[in-house]
Design goal:
Blueprint: E1 7-14, E2 18-20, H1 21-26, H2 32-38, E3 42-44, H3 53-67, E4 75-81, H4 93-101, E5 107-111, H5 117-131, E6 137-144, E7 165-172, E8 178-187, H6 212-220, H7 225-247, E9 256-258, H8 264-275, H9 284-287, H10 297-307, E10 316-323, E11 327-335
Parallel strand pairs: 4-5, 4-6, 9-10
Antiparallel strand pairs: 1-7, 1-8, 2-3, 6-7, 8-11, 10-11
Helix pairs in contact: 3-4, 7-8
Length: 341
């Protein structure tokens, strides 16, 4: 979908302290074999009593609104994208973020599209603003905390490490540092079992550590790995190609590509190599210091580039999301004027 007169007015992040991989190795949380593949340097780990997912998202949201110089009461839509437990069951996490960011006149929704949620929320926010010209802006937030007993960030999966934190993005029709050119999404529900495996449906949330490695093994026991890889690559290409075509640009025109914060090996196998992109055009050096933020990688990576003074006027940036389901969303931006740090 090609977009007109929509802008990224601001982004923001909020992170707890970084725990180095060296500390994790010394404490026996992580192993050297995985480090050789991921090349991760550190991950952000929420340890304080107030570092809940919704609170980290709210802090990022308030900062993004402040940077955008936008009255929160003028936000027409709030989308809070999540992957893991938000702190309380049978509760509206998005309403908490709405209250804490002052966006009291917005319609607020929690978006559950796994790790594609942040990028998908940007596309949904654009669709909302198109349908509601009386709404000047939308706020997208993400927030997750990957903690035991539900999830072991160091051993729950292979090829990546999970980090905690909140991110936020303000999409506005009143200007910003980047123009939204186009978005594209694709899905492949035949692969939803990769993250489910043989896990039975249950009346209660799982209280033992989730093992995504085992779930993937169970799925692949009855699937052809080559077919799975082909479908993964095809879905990714569809989402990217649609967005680039609608934006009127090519992969070669891109200055930056913000991918999921995967480890070195998985990043190349699943994201960069299928698209023929070099790691030098990615936000890898930042991602390896915070870990995989669930749905927050794309907004977090854009925030790092924008407020870390890595962008120049005219740069083309592709935000590329991947989520269980499987789902992919691409967002193409043109930088108008980098924001002040």
């Amino acid at each position: 979908m090609r977009w007109h007169d929509l802008y990224v007015a601001a982004t923001a992040t909020w992170f707890p302290r970084r725990v180095t991989v060296e500390e994790a190795l010394a404490r026996g949380w992580y192993d050297h074999g995985e480090l050789a593949d991921t090349r991760q340097a550190a991950v952000t780990v929420a340890e304080q009593p107030d570092e809940h997912p919704v609170e980290m998202a709210s802090r990022a949201g308030r900062l993004a609104l402040s940077r955008a110089a936008l009255d929160p009461a003028r936000v027409g839509l709030l989308l809070h994208a999540t992957l893991f437990h938000q702190g309380v069951d049978i509760w509206n996490a998005a309403a908490y973020v709405q209250r804490r960011t002052g966006t009291v006149r917005a319609r607020a929704f929690e978006l559950r599209q796994a790790c594609n949620g942040g990028a998908a929320a940007v596309e949904l926010a654009a669709e909302h603003l198109l349908a509601r010209p009386d709404h000047p802006a939308a706020l997208v937030t993400t927030g997750d905390r990957f903690a035991l007993p539900g999830f072991d960030r160091w051993r729950g999966d292979r090829g990546l490490l999970f980090g905690d934190g909140g991110t936020a993005l303000v999409l506005s029709r009143e200007g910003g540092f980047a123009r939204l050119l186009a978005t594209g999404s694709a899905g492949e529900p035949a692969l939803e079992g990769i993250h489910r495996g043989d896990t039975p449906f249950a009346p209660l949330s799982q209280t033992t550590p989730i093992d995504l490695v085992q779930r993937r093994k169970e799925f692949l026991a009855d699937a052809d790995p080559e077919v799975v890889t082909t479908r993964l690559n095809a879905g990714q290409r569809r989402a990217v190609e649609v967005a680039l075509a609608d934006a009127g640009v090519t992969l070669g025109d891109l200055t930056w590509v913000v991918t999921p914060n995967f480890g070195w090996g998985l990043l190349h196998r699943q994201c960069l190599d299928p698209l023929g992109l070099p790691v030098s055009r990615s936000a890898w050096e930042w991602g390896r210091t915070v870990g995989h933020l669930g749905p927050g990688d794309q907004i977090g990576g854009l925030d790092h580039l924008a407020y870390g003074q890595r962008l120049c006027a005219g740069d083309l940036v592709l935000l590329f999301g991947v989520g269980a389901g499987f789902a992919w969303t691409s967002v193409v931006l043109r930088i108008l004027q980098p924001p002040h740090p």
